[in-house]
Amino acid sequence: MGRFHRHDGGTEHDHDLAQDHEHDHEHAPDESAVSADHGDLSAYDTGVERVSVLERIFSENDRAAQANRAAFDGCGVRCVNMMSSPGAGKTTLLVHTLRHLQKQGVRAGVVEGDIETSLDADRLAGLGAQVALLNTGNGFGGECHLDAPMVARALSDLDLDTLDLLLVENVGNLVCPAEFDVGAHDSVMVYAITEGEEKPLKYPVMFRSVGVVLVNKMDLLPHLDFDLALFLRNLAQVNPQARVFEVSARTGAGLDDWHTWLTAAPVGVRAT
Amino acid sequence: MHELSLCRSIYGIVDAARGDREVEVVHLEVGQLRQVVPDTLLYCWTMVTADTDLAGSRLDIDHVPVTLDCTACGAQTTPGHALVLTCAACGSGNITLHTGEEFMVTSMDITAREPMRQEP
Fold first, then answer.
1. Element holding A200 (H helix, E strand)
2. CATH fold for the domain made of B3-110
3. pLDDT tens, A158-207?
4. Which residues in chain A are contacts of B38 at CB distance < 8 A?
5. Mind listing the pLDDT tens digit for each residue in A237-251?
6. What number is the ipTM of this complex?
7. Given the DSSP bridges, would you call strands A186-192 and B103-111 parallel, antiparallel or unpaired?
8. Half-sphere exposure of B9 (CA within 13 A, CB side)
9. Which residue in A4, A50, A238 is closest to B109 by CB distance?
10. Of A63, A66, A101, B34, which is the most buried if we count CB atoms within 10 A?
11. Same domain, residue pair A37 and A168
12. Prediction pTM value
């Protein structure tokens, strides 16, 4: 990403429209089609001036994410962002995991992202964890992801000083959450074998964005035509470094390795 | 559907950079791996800018294809299929992304104004 740079003054002028494109790639053939409807500049007889901006669209989110991470580091809290499609089993897994952490004396917190309702947060009550619910349903039908400023707001409901581990249960969605750094040290996804082997190829950004993939619902394997080897090959095509834990959140099978990973990695060290 | 929040971010960037100048076109660079639906982004832009000083401005999207640097063989390749991120020369998955994750406001076209005339 070395090409990204920001000019300290915020903007820089460039009056030569013809040489605006400095990069070395071909333009997609549909580029002109995208803007073709709007191209009437005839009303502007004074001409236009192109002003360079060069600011990453995620920069505001990323600054907030950095602040969250600094807050976690300051309190010695490890933060793990958990993502999945709806129904992959994040909450069921969290119930097992929180129970385990409670037994181990690990002080856990959960930021529970949901478009509406507190149903998931209710399932996590009574397991010894501090739970902060974030409903994202404000505005136009609800955000499909948690972003760093939202997580920052949730932190006001948590006492970070008394926590060791913070799990962020993101909104169930394989697209949007992958784009937003929330300030976690690690990102994990829960994938259920009922989703089909091709998902890594269809949602490569999500599968690339995580260090760990929990392959869930393994108890259903005898009942499905699921080809685990094919899934793992597909995963390796988009994320050869991902660690894989085969688990069943329903039966609890395979969760020991996941729990060991979750509690063993030192704070501030990202999974690779 | 995160195009709406993306448009709010773009709005913040452009509105801060423009000062009090009138913006006609906002130029974006969007990598192929960014999960942005161009038509939705354009539509959300009209929603986000409605009744603001940026109303009537439009987004111009420059799509940047994926290119990969292979750690194994050193080649820089463009994958045949954008979603398969292995080296097109040697097949290794040991790659770093050279381009394809861009997502930035590169520039904006502003309406140049006549210099203010001093009344005598």
1. helix A199-202
2. hypothetical protein PF0899 fold (3.30.2320)
3. 999 999 999 999 988 998 888 899 999 999 999 999 999 999 988 988 99
4. 34
5. 888 889 999 999 999
6. 0.83
7. unpaired
8. 24
9. A50
10. A101
11. no
12. 0.79
